[in-house]
Design brief:
By secondary structure, this protein is mainly alpha-helical. The protein has helices at about 5-25, 30-50, 55-65, 70-80, 85-95, 100-115, 120-125, 130-145, 150-155, 160-175, 180-190, 195-205. The chain is built from 12 helices and no strands.
Length: about 230
């Protein structure tokens, strides 16, 4: 990911600061501590914040597109925008970079759901460690098999509210209860931040194309007026 001007200036300042401290024979421990703290702050600003806490769609999209050569980040962009060829390429990169079976299972589960390939999804779930993500995909499999009531029971064991709301929205939409689905969809959007929010909103734009005003992505959803109150990938 290319650095912006502010980041170049910041790193240059740290470099100069280290040189000055070395010139005045300051403690190596102090110098290394300063560099470490600065690096952590920069990483938080450049990666962790947009991945986990950002709410504005334009900023998240810019962040994702800048990370075209970072597969574990870029996968969110290509899946959210349904760029099939790039999804295939990025998945190959991820599976090559992360050979561990449990790690690959997480990506394969998302890929299977994206392709609506329930066999791939089921095989991936069997290799996933016990977690909210595994339960999330197990619930999806129940819904796809027509076992909505069992799915409702299972999803209650998921700790993440946004996951529960996504699943409830999907169940209601599949049952033809569109208005209730929209309520759960908004609940999901209100409860999630970062790249998961980006993927979610992009999916809802397709799911509710007959009424795009329901999901006004020009705004940060944390600042919109409640529309009381919101399916996707993960």
């Amino acid at each position: 990911m290319r650095m912006n001007r502010w980041e170049v200036v910041s790193y240059s300042a740290v470099f100069v600061f280290v040189l000055v401290m070395l010139l005045y024979e300051q403690s190596i421990v102090l110098i290394l501590g300063t560099v470490l703290i600065t690096t952590l702050i920069a990483f938080t600003i450049r990666v962790i914040h947009p991945m986990a806490w950002e709410t504005r769609m334009d900023r998240m999209e810019t962040f994702l597109r800048k990370n075209q050569h970072t597969p574990y980040i870029y996968i969110y962009y290509v899946i959210a925008n349904r760029l099939d060829e790039e999804v295939e390429i990025t998945m190959e990169q991820l599976l090559s970079k992360y050979p561990k079976k449990k790690t690959q299972a997480v990506y394969n589960a998302a890929y299977g759901y994206y392709r609506n390939d329930m066999l791939t999804l089921r095989n991936a779930v069997n290799n996933m460690p016990k977690s909210d993500y595994r339960t999330y995909y197990e619930t999806i499999l129940l819904v796809e098999n027509g076992w909505s009531e069992k799915a409702r029971e299972l999803l209650q064991t998921i700790k993440k509210p946004w996951m529960r709301s996504i699943l409830l929205a999907g169940i209601e939409l599949k049952a033809g209860n569109r208005e209730i689905a929209i309520v759960h969809a908004h609940e999901a959007i209100d409860a999630v931040k970062g790249v998961q929010r980006y993927v979610l909103i992009k999916e809802y734009e397709r799911s509710y194309t007959d009424d795009t005003s329901v999901f006004d992505t020009r705004m940060s959803y944390s600042h919109r007026q409640p529309v009381h109150p919101s399916r996707t990938l993960k």
